Amino acid sequence: MALIKVHGHHFSTATCMVLCCLNEKQVEYDFVLVDLPTGAHKKPQYLALNPFGVVPTVQDEDLTLFESRAIVKYLAKKFKGQGTELLGNTLAEQALVEQWCQVEGQSFYPPASTILFQTVLFPLRGGTTDEAVVEINIGKLNRVLDIYEERLSKSKYLAGDFFSLADLQHLPWTQYLVTACKKGDLISSRKHVSAWWEDISSRPAWKKVAEKMPK
Amino acid sequence: MAKIKVHGLPFSSCTARVLACLNEKQVEYELIPVNARAGDHKKPQYLSLNPFGLFPALEDGCLTLFESRAIIKYLAKKYEGQGCPNLLGSTVEEEAVVEQWCEVESHHFNPPCYALVSQIIINPLKGGTTDEAVVESNAEKLSRVLDVYEDRLSKSKYLAGDWFSLADLQHMPFLHYLVNDVGKATLISSRKHVNAWWEDISSRPAWKKIAVHMKFPSK
User: Most buried of A48, A189, B8, B200, CB within 10 angstroms?
Assistant: First the structure.
């Protein structure tokens, strides 16, 4: 049986999410570098795999999948029974995992990605940081993290007392917030969020991915 | 057994998404309107259901859930044996493709749609103005996304395959607004397969019951 192929880039948060999940599930894979700086993701060969021209895309035998949050869910289901269980056991637990996965996608990721773009990526391309936009998004992220602080004061992980996809989905963005964006105080100023971050970021499956990300 | 309770408003896209799913699964429910004008969604009673102060929140016995896209997945699983079958797909691979197009809705389709509705409907309702530059750039983004959909739907009757799934359902509230409320119907009608898909899914009885209530309040 052919190894799962991951087309992506080690610096891409979405790629990192998928690689972390593969590590948690103890699944071997082939990594195929998509050379983002040269625009490889916008060329016909890659667009044939992912018509939205973003990374990552995963190939598993006849199945080609894009959207990292869909990919990690697929992996968590397909490899149920090996590695870390990531989805919850009961219908109610699975619903809570899904709920906090959606919170990541709808409320955490938008301000986090804007802060990363403004403070790191845009300047790298010769642009100037718009401090007003950064300020607005730090405000949004602060409000979201206040809710996380409350949640994590009652629950070791987001969905309950078990590490799940909901926590995993937060790893790449939080890694960049704390390192390249130099916004670690957003995390460290909150006792329970900080403890949660220390816990999930020290997982071996994540550390292997994080060591290849720029600081 | 107590009925499922949905706290929200019928013209809220996310509430409509959940109600459409309940209808598709033929599940009875009680809709509890939240007085947004009075700011009730930001008060402690509602925040105890949804700490983000957004619509909707669902109560099912002891379980309280928020995030419409999570709620509809829960309902589709819980009521797998009744109503519209296969909303999630019936194999791991089918489920993955449904999930993929659900995520496409979330991250490629929803953001520009939300921006258009905010600028064209919500801002004026709150006494603000429409920023035409923002409207133009988001209409352009949405156009590019819909080009991908046109290609997909030229090969597949619905987004995930030849069956109606949560991936199609997730799109319906904002598709409704695009076609009916923000004056961007040509984005849909100018694309043969996207248009045929919209005609098909919007004629589903479960949706039509919701659509009649999707009217924004006047100022």
Answer: B8
Query: 3-class SS at A29?
Result: strand
Q: Three-state SS for A6? A: strand
Q: Chain B residues with CB inside 8 Å of A103's CB?
A: 52, 67
Inter-chain residue contact B52 with A91, CB threshold 8 Å = no
Beta strands in chain B (DSSP E): 4-8, 29-33, 57-60, 63-66
CA-to-CA distance for B176 and B160, rounded, in angstroms? 20
Identify which of A52, A65, A107 has the shortest CB distance to residue B148: A52
Cα A63 to Cα A180: distance, rounded to the nearest angstrom: 35
The model's pTM is 0.97
Question: Rounded distance, CA A106 to CA B111, Å?
Answer: 10
What is the reported pLDDT for B216?
Answer: 81
Q: Candidates 1.20.1050.10, 1.25.40.20, 3.10.105.10, 1.10.246.40; correct CATH number of A91-210? A: 1.20.1050.10
Q: What is the tens place of the pLDDT at every residue in B191-200?
A: 999 999 999 9
Backbone CA torsion sign across B108, B111, B117, B119: negative
Check if the beta carbon of residue B50 is closer than 8 Å to that of residue B18.
Answer: no
Average model confidence (pLDDT) across chain B = 96
Task: List CB contacts of B9: < 8 A, sequence separation 6 or more.
Answer: B15, B33, B34, B36, B55
SS3 B31: strand
Nearest to A102 among B69, B99, B108 (CB): B69
Q: What's the start-to-end Cα distance of chain A, in Å? A: 36
Which helix (H) or strand (E) element contains residue A111? helix A109-116
CATH of A4-78 among 3.40.30.10, 3.40.1010.20, 3.20.20.70, 2.60.200.20: 3.40.30.10
The span from the CA of A29 to the CA of A27, in Å, is 6
Please give the radius of gyration of chain A, using alpha carbons only, rounded to the nearest integer. 17
SS3 B39: coil
Residues of chain B with a CB closer than 8 angstroms to some CB in chain A: 51-52, 63, 65-67, 69-71, 73-74, 77-78, 92-93, 95-97, 99-100, 102-104, 106-108, 145, 148, 151-152
d(CA A70, CA B134): 29
pLDDT of residue A125 exceeding 70, the answer is yes
Q: Whole-angstrom Cα distance, residue A157 to residue A164?
A: 8
In chain A, where the domains are located: 4-78, 91-210
ipTM comes to 0.96
